[in-house]
Amino acid sequence: MNSPDTIRRHDLHRRQPGTLWRQGIPTGNGLLGTMVWGGPDIWKMTLDRSDLWLRPPNAPGSRTNAGTLSIAMGGGVFEEGLDLHNAIGWRCTSQVRCDWLVHAVEPTIAIRLVRAGGDLPTSLSWRPPRLWDDKHQRQKRYIAILAKQSPTAAVDPYAGHVSSSIVVNEGIGLCQLHAWGKVVSTTRLSVWHGGEPVSMSTDGHNLTWPGGYDELLLLVQVFAGESDALIGDARVWDVLLGDHRMWWHAHWATSGLSLSHATAERWWHLGKYFIGCNMRSSGPPVPLQGVWGEDAPPWWGAYTWDLNVQACYWPVCQAGHADTIEALLTWHESQIPNMEARGRDVYGVAGALLSLNSDLEGVPLSQFGEHPTNAFGVWNCHVIWEFYRANPRKDVLVRIMPILASHLRLQQVLWQIGNDGRYHLDNATSPEITLLAESPSAIRDTAFEIAMARALASYYLHAYGELGGQDVGLAVYASDFLARAVDYPSLATHSSNYFWPVDPGVPDYWVEWPGLDAALSHRHFSHLMMIAPLGNVHSRSPRRDRAIAHNSLHRLMMRGTACWECFSFPWASLLNTRMGWRPRLSFHLLDQLRTYLAEPFNGLALNGDFQGYGLFNQTGPYGPDDLGVFTIESNFMAMAAVQEAVLFEASGALITGEGLTEDIEGTFHGWHVPGRPPLSGRIDRGQVQIEDTCVRKSTHA
Predict the structure, then answer these.
(1) 409, containing H or E segment
(2) CA 518/CA 514 separation, integer angstroms
(3) Which pLDDT score, from 0 to 100, does residue 526 have?
């Protein structure tokens, strides 16, 4: 088992509170999420569900949370933390102790208040989300984007249309958020003492109960829309805790890691915790904010179908949680008719077109419109294909094949044979989408597009070979594309005006945009997709492709990454391992981010930021308290980088130790690579002992 003592090494323990929402302590169960924050004398819990959306008429929708509960806890000595092994948060002041959990099995949040000698707080306040507050610059920016996207939208489409109410009905507090005549969310809250309900009253803003109690249990449920569901029976804290602990202990037991490198070990455990908080096989796929939403979340809280969502699934298969991809597969199956309808509207073919941004129902949200690419859908296809590799069963492949075929039909239209007899994409795209919109002809045939298209064709050919099928022409196209796709770009294939100057003749595909600082230009490093996670280029690839990869990684180290270091450092570590290089790069890069493990961040939001402003930038355009937004994909990238630095399966061979320094020691268990049972072993000075076989480090030219 994953040792509880190892997990406890990574518990959070704060003596300073997170006074901003994004500095809070997150807990969740795959659908419900809470963020606990607030000053030393006020406990705040922001409530969220990953399926809560506001949908104004004639304007794009946006994720929203359900609101924030607040309880006065008195002053004095302050401590706060998170018991990672049991997924329980706690806060103590001189007067009150509060423990809370989002139940891992049931849709319930439990909050226990204890005070020696009685006289606990007697009220709780509920604040609905602050939506489009004119005093906040970030919301002003969003409103401007909305108005630009939809000319018919008012300057503030939410003004006068969003309201809240609190009532008490049969002893249950009901906190509702209303928008455009509909109930967006219903929060049901009850207070219990000794198994008996405590009577409550309300003034429309606060819920109040009698004083004199030394222990109280608050049960909270959050629903999308209206709900007549009951809060349930008054089970005591210990009973609630039993099923919750059982689930989390089983979660931790699936895989484990103990390393002498404390930072790498901590990143891995925080990633494992986030998997448990955000992912279930049923329910919505995980968005880049996870189950935690701000008052006005970045990118509308949308599903961003590129690195942002896809990276959240990078570590799950190796960590033994491939089942969580089932949610993404189910969602993608349900959306194929909508994607094919957009393909017909935009390109005249019934091929799947997935927008860069969408809501949970697949409605496009991006202000940039549709893009001449099917790469965003192929990101999902790659994750789904990893699900099949972890579950190589015919029934899984039968579900996946229609998805692959639909995306491949769109690719047939987009990729055209040029005068050189090779397939080209005349108007490519990338995550640097804003700049592309301003200069749509600036670049073509990016490594990002080529890697995704090659991956899709190879997946389909494999599925066709296993299952056969009626569409022989599509299989012929996939085979022809793999044979005649354009090479990955180098300086010889593009004008040097679009590249940072490098030594003449050195292959390179580091795409940079005209007039933009190099470090900002490649912030997502999506053009390195050819290496990871797709694996189209790896340590055994031809020398030219490995030279391209080497030069790109060298540029990353030499030129820096501006404010996107939380994307690029984990990714560079992962790339380094996939290419089989050992110059202490992987763990050297992990060391660069030790600052993110300090209070009040504790590594819980490794990301860069919104629109190019870093986590520690306190002079950004949104005011002195703008310390970046809370999104989670970089946490998962860091976990994947650590896993692959320990072991990685490439071309059927187990390559181990390549990303490790000579003095790293540790153990691991329950780790998965395709075609093998779960692996356990020991790491000893750059060698990995797996069961009874010592697999030595591979060396590469």
Answers:
(1) helix 394-414
(2) 9
(3) 59
